[in-house]
Amino acid sequence: MSIDKQSDFAANLQIGPTSLGMVRIYVQGDGVDLPMDFEPEEAEEIADEIRAAAAHARAQTAPGKSPKPKG
Questions:
Q1: Three-state DSSP state, 38
Q2: What is the tally of structural domains in the chain?
Q3: Which of 4, 29, 63, 68 could serve as 11's disulfide partner, Cβ 3.0–4.6 Å?
Q4: Long-range CB contacts for residues 25-34, cutoff 8 Å, separation at least 24
């Protein structure tokens, strides 16, 4: 599956600090139980990437700009 393909898969996402000073991103869904630990600096880089992707997605659906067709 590519990152740009829509999915019906649902999962829960939790993010928080661990007792060992790491940042944990925890994904849980049907058949998935995935804890991922990151150094704080790595977590900040991930947060920056999420912000950049959100800005790009927002620009794609800005007024006057038609959304990209699916398919």
A1: strand
A2: 1
A3: 29
A4: none
Q: How far apart are CA 69 and CA 71, in angstroms?
A: 7
Domain assignment of residue 21, given as a range = 11-60
The CB-side HSE value for 46 (13 A sphere, CA atoms) comes to: 12
Query: Is 39 within a domain?
Result: yes
C-alpha radius of gyration, the chain, whole number: 16
CA atoms within 13 A on the CB side of 48: 6
Dump pLDDT digits (tens) for 22-66: 999 999 999 999 999 999 999 999 999 999 999 999 999 877 665
